[in-house]
Input
Amino acid sequence: MSASNKLFQLLAPSAGAGSTRGQKLLGIGICTFFAVIFTYVNTPDRSRGKDGKVRPNSMTDLKMLIKILIPNMFCKEAGILGLFLVVLTARTLLSIFVAHLDGRVIKSLVELRFKEFAKLTGVWLALGIPAAMCNASIKLLQMKLALCFRIKLTKHIYDKYLHNEVYYKSGNMDDRVENPDQMITDDCDKFSIQLADLFSQLAKPIFDCLLFTIELWKSVGSGAVAGAMFTTVTTARALNAVRPPFGKLTAAVAEADGQWRTRHSRLVTDAEEVGFHRGAAVERNRLELGFSKLLAAHKQLMDVSFPYNVCEGYFTKYIWGIVGMTVCAAPVLLGGGSIGAGRATEILVTNRKLMASAADSTERLMESFKEVAHLSGRSGRLAKLLSVFEEVGQGKYHHHQVSGSPDEQRVSRPLNYKGKVIFDPDRIKFEDVPITAPNGEMLVKPATFEIKRGDHTLITGPNGCGKSSLFRVLAGLWPAFAGTLHRPADPKDIFFLPQRAYLVQGSLRDQIIYPDTSAKCSDEKLCEILTWACCLHVKTREKNGLDTIQEWKDVLSGGERQKIGLARVFYHLPKFAILDECTSQIHVDDEDKLYNKLKECGVTLLSVSHRRTIWHHHKMSIAFANGEITFAPFECEQTFAPGMRTLSSDAPPQGSP
Output
């Protein structure tokens, strides 16, 4: 039977049999592949120790990530993967047809039948069209699959990272994850590409091995194929025994790369300060140290890869090659000379083509196991990232502690806090609440005070006494380690305004309404707010007014930047506003107008300021001194902390922040 008839029978439906053998093989192959994936992903992990706890397992991490990316067989990613497998199967069937066609072409040349040779050449050219389409489709679907994986994984990470201030807490309250930005961007991208490529490296060789082995079985018999399979399994087990820990080494390279990128990011962020201090030499040493660690990790990976690649190349190229040649020649050698030269040539060429394809598929399958090891190292980093984000979102933190022995300080331990938070709409109250840093250091002893609506409070104390930490506890960025904290439930009821207001990328309107994404009032109202904040001139000098898009951190002066921050307070009108040196660069006349307007709008002020000119706007005071808080009614002539002078003094208070 001709090869074209065989291909036709393999692909075309039969009138009485329902579906053909080729369609059955295709369906069985795809269903089996999916079944293996979903069984692997959904099988409970059994790698548990005697204590019942699951031991760290990079393959378990990979299963978890695949379950996130392909949650069921009816999702978009599963559909693309299914189409991908169909195209792979079609290309394998075309490869089988090409193997038989090669044998017939060589046979026509040996027998000098040039008319048949020309005919087969035309078939070859016609076959190139669907073959080229299959190859292009495989590349396209693989890229689409990688993109879908990255989209789903990035969205899943964002759901955890941008929820409940995890983006802050994971870097400040918890120290288990370094360089989360590099993991979210670089590791996610590389993991998605490698996983999509792994599906191709696994599925194509599996289908090829299956179909090519069936064809060889029919051509050379079961004994020869069994011998080839025994050789393949034996060498595969030998390679598996000498395979280095590629997953662990790949994770080390990724971690070193992330640390090196972070050092570059810090230099870009602090370039001005480094320039003022002429610190290029010091920064270069730090960058070169990070780069040398990255090179060392790469070198370690290359050193262990070389001997393994030697073994792999020898087994797959030479041992498999000689076994394959013997299998291909079996029908001719055992034919006893009864086979003609043309037929013998056709058998050798066809079998050689099939055997080479099967061997190549097996070699790629072996290499895919190495890729699984590389992929497991990156999946371990991403799984750790997701696990930490999950725990931090639930209020479970780990951090190195300053107490205990040096060995204990090197271990990141869970933070044990027992404070309670009670939501109260109209007051802020601390009941025996200490201010404790994430590393376990108590900055301020347990304090008790109450600030009601209208109790404008001045906060004073030396640098590093815990004023900013008080605000972190109040905002919920740090937990209350003990006692009871009363505060409004809505985070927008407490607005924090630092000395250097945060400016976003976008229009002037976006600066005023941040963190809102759309204005809840008219542009006329926004202009009135700018007037209250003494910065309407910023809008009038811009050609497009509120719609002007600029790099505002470079356009606005220090005082204008602070006034834009105060415009946000007027826009949101919170119940309480924490003003941390937010008028230090504003003229005193405008400063007085701003404070009067804030009080007129019903905003209760909690102020930290060097300037004595704003003290008279307050009724209460919180003074930090010697690790304690003193809360009392405000008096202009009162001394707030040791070394501080009174309001009547010409010099600024020494103990002021």
